[in-house]
Amino acid sequence: MSIQDILQTIINSLPMIGRYALVTMGIVLIFRTTATTNFAQGLIATFGTFVVTWAALLFTELNLWICLLLGMAAAFLLGMFVDVALIRRAKRITPSGKQMITMGVMMILVNVTPMVFRDITIWNRPGKGFTTEIFIFNLFGMPMNITQMGLLAFVLAVILLGLVFAALKFTRWGLGVRATAANEAVAQMLGVNTKVITAFSWALAGALATVAGFFTGAGTALNVTLMGSTQVFGFLACVLGGFSSFPAPILGSVIIPLVYNFAGNPNLMGPDAGMWQNMITFIVVLLLILAFPNGLLGKKYIKKV
Questions:
Q1: What does the DSSP 8-state code read for residue 40?
Q2: Domain boundaries, the chain
């Protein structure tokens, strides 16, 4: 396996890294502020992606970026609704009970989404949708390539995540999120409106995941299973990186696509690499989790008696 092949495999992983990082950021935001593992994350993103496509088909002169913003807004409101109408009323329910609530939301969306949006595919007419053109460039004197959609997915993910991390560090909202993540009761005593914090975390998670959903389904027929594997790998990224901080799961969302693409590289794993790609990825991630049970960047908490 040549250096060029290694670099090209890394570049091929960038779009997947961007999509997984957006989903993972939403998962960890919800978990850190509400102690809830959101099984409906993928379906909320799928709903937002259907809204993007519906808007592009209905308003044919509307710019696709505007359609994407509409889809993000729809997922933003849906995520906020789930928190305000359901999770907030389940304060005394166990964490596993909250997980079952999100699973119920998932099952509702699985059935409702196809009823609301029928026979929809991504609008990709020349001049309106993004194209699948290949961007060719040189890296260390070696020719590399990446699709326009893939490059956009990665760049947009970097920008959005950069804005989120900047907001977490430098804004009052970020301070409220960090205080709520540390201890919700103490945060309330200090004057933090934790209801606003949790609602916005759910809403933002849905909006970010919709961007990932759009680039996952762009140019393909949409269905409710669109974000299934992305959500699974998003959860794995959180466990692999560690739930104890916001940046840690992003590390997991970088490692998993790299392992996945190298495992599927026929020059490295042979002509049947695609058959073993998922299995090898899960085995590597499992071994890493066993070696780092608190996550690669996770912290071990010691309780005093």
A1: T
A2: 3-225
